[in-house]
Amino acid sequence: MASRLNPYLSFGGNARQAMEFYEEVFGGTLRLNTFGEFGQKDTPEAHKIMHSMLETPRGFTLMGADTPPGMEVGEGSNFSVSLSGDDDTELRGYWEKLSTGGSVAVPLEKQMWGDVFGMCTDRFGIRWMVNISQPQS
Q1: Confidence of residue 77 (pLDDT cuts 50, 70, 90)
Q2: Which fold has domain 4-132?
Q3: Strand-strand pairing, 61-66 and 79-85
Q4: CA nearest to 35, candidates 14, 17, 51, 11
Q5: Which of 14, 33, 119, 131 could form a disulfide with 84 if both were Cys (CB 3.0 to 4.6 A apart)?
Q6: Hey, where are the domains in the chain?
Q7: Which DSSP letter does residue 18 get?
Q8: pLDDT of 111-125, one tens digit each?
Q9: If you write DSSP's letter for every residue of 36-49 in order, what string do you get?
Q10: What span, in angstroms and rounded, lies between the C-alpha atoms of 118 and 104?
Q11: According to the model, what pLDDT value does residue 82 have?
Q12: What rounded mean pLDDT belongs to the chain?
């Protein structure tokens, strides 16, 4: 899988409605995953969207999620740039450069969904998410 760069939108509880709207606007295939599907079944967030991805016939990719408890969402903090793929060396290289001189919110490490993931803000104030998946066999 080639590495991908795309916007990642954050919502305050209406990610499903927003992503379904973008699917109507752009067409394509929308995949939605809830917090409950990833082990948080007995929480108030179980029905909320942990991750969604819209891939369109024109090659657009838009990702989004409901903001987890404890994280604020608002104008200016409602999006990040997402880097994802399965090239561990390439993506770790980007992570090192992006996080140097910035701040790390989530260290780049294995997560409950099985991928290596991290979040940082670069030295210019831009929020980045890096997700390294296992190579497909």
Answers
A1: confident
A2: 2,3-Dihydroxybiphenyl 1,2-Dioxygenase; domain 1 (3.10.180)
A3: unpaired
A4: 51
A5: 131
A6: 4-132
A7: H
A8: 988 999 999 999 988
A9: GGGT-TTSTTTTSE
A10: 8
A11: 94
A12: 90
User: Cα separations (Å) of 3 from 17, 33, 35, 38, 133?
Assistant: 28, 21, 25, 24, 10
Give which of 51, 53, 8 is closest to 26, Cα–Cα.
53
What's the confidence (pLDDT) of residue 18?
95
Strand partners, 44: none
pLDDT at 2 over 90: no
DSSP letters of 76-106? TSSEEEEEEES-HHHHHHHHHHHHTTSEEEE
**pLDDT confidence bin for 28, thresholds 50/70/90:** very high
> 89 to each of 2, 7, 22, 35, how far by Cα in Å?
13, 22, 33, 29
Question: Are the C-beta atoms of 19 and 61 separated by less than 8 Å?
Answer: no
pLDDT tens string 39-50: 767 777 888 999
Backbone phi, psi, residue 102, to 5°:
-115, -150
Residue 118 tokens, joined? 């991290």
For residue 137, pLDDT beyond 70: no
